Structures are given as structure tokens and as C-alpha cells.
Amino acid sequence: MNAPGNVWQGAGRRIHLQEVGLRDGLQMEKALVPTADKIALCNALSATGVAKIEVTSFTSPTAIPALRDAEIVMREITRRPGTVYTALVPNLRGAERAIESRTDELNLVMSVSATHNLANLRMTQAQSFDALAQVVARAQSAQVAVNVSLSCVFGCPMEGDVPEAQVFDWVQRFVDLGVCGITLCDTTGMAYPTQVHQLTAAARVRWPGVAFTLHFHNTRGMGLANVLAAIDAGADRFDASLGGLGGCPYAPGASGNVCSEEIAHALALMGYATGVDLDGLLAAARQLPALIGHDIPSQIAKAGPRLALHPVPADFDAVRARALAR
């Protein structure tokens, strides 16, 4: 953990920003973004230097029609060396489709909350784990990386708090399968900074060889604070969504993920090294309203970076002259 007071001083420490807006964001939108626009948006995100992009989801086109073009998008994007191109995979069939489409990493999802898992995935936790264990085995045989995203780690909107021991039990089950990447998800924005710090620090001590990602939503306005708390606990990988898009259909009022350009802006000011081109992120975010048909939550896209200066008022010289004449 950083020494007291150093949380605000990045001192060049590397933080990996992972873009999830193309999947986590677009799957919630009513508007169907054309395939060519998705590919162009992914290419623009690649050019910004983000560490990972969740490009799409290999789910049933009936279940998520917004991402029914998964194969085409994944095959036709321009891949930047050093960027990982991942996709959500719900089952063995989805895994086969993703592997055939040259996906770098399969992202698997289940909930540490029994109620949320049943509501969201229509399966018990045992059924989800058995299905995902098959996917892990298939990915390993194909030598494709696997990440497991655990939902509701910081609280369930139907059950309330989820005990840390319960969360860690599910982490251990996947580690036992050989999974090396785990995402701790604040699925509905229930996390708060001291909770985040405690759980993140404990997870990193218990599994030092696991690459932990933190996935926060900004539902209650604590997204950035939670990111900083996780960084202070040693975390260095974060999901974020372009424009702040996203949400959860089983948590009324849940807003989108923490906003990619807002996190990149804040971390850069604090001296952290993200390797991300903020101007490129802003340019991509400002394309979103035309693609999805409505405004985006991003405040940075509206206001610009902190030092985006503005011209003085048109009558400034006259006002100055009058002031000096007094």
C-alpha cells in the first residue's frame, strides 16, 4: 500500500485502463449501432493505447440483438500490438464462436450472489460454475486466455452485503481451475472506498499471482473514489466505459460504468502512467451521441480537460480599460 498521503501522487506508476463500452455499454442501448461504426470505434479506441478492449459478446443474437454481429466485428477490427481484445462468453457454444473469431481472451461471468445469478443468468450458481468450468477447459485446450468477472462482489441489490468469505470462495474455485485473471465487479454501484480498499488488499495478499481487475459503476457517484481506493490497495487494472455508458437491467437506477475519459483525465493529473491518449478518448466519446441517439454521462466530454482554456469575453479589453481608468 502507498505510504500515508501518497495516494494523490502517482509518481509514474503504471495503471492499465481496460475499455468495456463496446460490450457493456452498447448492449444496454436501444439503438443498434451499425457494424462498420462499431469496428471504427474499436479501431479508434485501439489507437488511444488502452490496455484491453472488450469488443463484443458471443451471446445469443436473440438475447442481445445489439451485439449480433460479434463474429464480424471481432474479425475485422484492426489489432494494435500490445492491446488485448477480449469478449464476453456465456457458454461453450459462445466460446467456440469467440475462438474461431480469433478472440485473445474469453471473459466469463457469474455472480457471487445466488439471487442475482439466478435473475441475471437464469441459472443457479452451481449450474453457472459447471458451465464455465467447461469453457475454461476448452479455452485452455485452445491456448486462449481466460478472465472471470464476478458480479455483485461489493453488494447485491436484492440480497444486500455479500460476505468477503463468500466472494473469496468463488475466486478460489476459479483459481483452482487455473484461471489467472479475476475481475471484482461492483455491478450496481454499491461499493464504497474503505470497503474497496479492504477487499482489494486482502485479495492481492491471498492470491499474489492473480491479475485482479476492478470494475466499478458510478451509480452513487463514488466511482472515481473507489478507483483511487483500489489503487491505494495496490490494484493496477480497471475496467471503464467510453462516455460512461452501461448499467444493469436488474438494478433499477443503476448508471453506467466509471467513465474511461474521466478516469484517464484524473489519473493523468495525479501522475499515474496509463499510456492512454486522452484527446483520442475524448474524440471517440464525442461520437457516441450520434451513434446511440442520446447524450452521454461523461462530464469531461462536455467540459473538456482541466486546462481546456476559453477565450476572454468579447468586451474584455473595454472592461479592462474602464477598470484601469478608475
Descriptive labels:
single chain; 326 residues; alpha/beta; TIM Barrel; globular
Structure at a glance:
By secondary structure, the protein is α/β, with parallel strands linked by helices.
Can you characterise this structure?
By secondary structure, this protein is α/β, with parallel strands linked by helices. The chain has one domain (6-325): Alpha-Beta Barrel (TIM Barrel). It has 14 helices and eight strands. The protein has an eight-stranded parallel barrel with strand order 1-2-3-4-5-6-7-8, surrounded by eight helices. Strand 6 (181-185), helix 8 and strand 7 (211-215) form a beta-alpha-beta unit. Helix 2 (35-48) packs across helix 3, helix 4 (92-100) runs parallel beside helix 6 and helix 10 (260-269) packs antiparallel against helix 11 (278-285). It is globular and about 80 Å long.
Task: Draw up the topology in text.
Blueprint: E1 16-19, H1 21-25, H2 35-48, E2 52-57, H3 70-76, E3 84-88, H4 92-100, E4 105-111, H5 114-121, H6 125-141, E5 145-151, H7 164-176, E6 181-185, H8 193-206, E7 211-215, H9 223-232, E8 237-240, H10 260-269, H11 278-285, H12 288-292, H13 299-303, H14 316-325
Parallel strand pairs: 1-2, 1-8, 2-3, 3-4, 4-5, 5-6, 6-7, 7-8
Helix pairs in contact: 2-3, 2-11, 4-6, 8-9, 10-11
- Provide the structure class: alpha/beta
Approximately how much beta-strand content do the residues carry? 5-15%
Number of strands: 8
Largest sheet: 8 strands, parallel, barrel
- Which residue ranges are poorly predicted, with pLDDT under 50 across at least 5 consecutive positions? 1-9
Mean pLDDT: 94
Binned, the helix content reads 40-55%
Total helices: the number is 14
The CATH class assignment is Alpha Beta
N-to-C series of helices and strands: EHHEHEHEHHEHEHEHEHHHHH
CATH architecture: Alpha-Beta Barrel
Oligomer: single chain
CATH superfamily: Aldolase class I
Distance between the ends: 57 Å
Total of domains: 1
Predict the CATH topology: TIM Barrel
Looking at the structure, what is the overall shape? Answer: globular
Radius of gyration: 21 Å
Instruction: Please give the order of strands in the largest beta sheet.
Output: 1-2-3-4-5-6-7-8
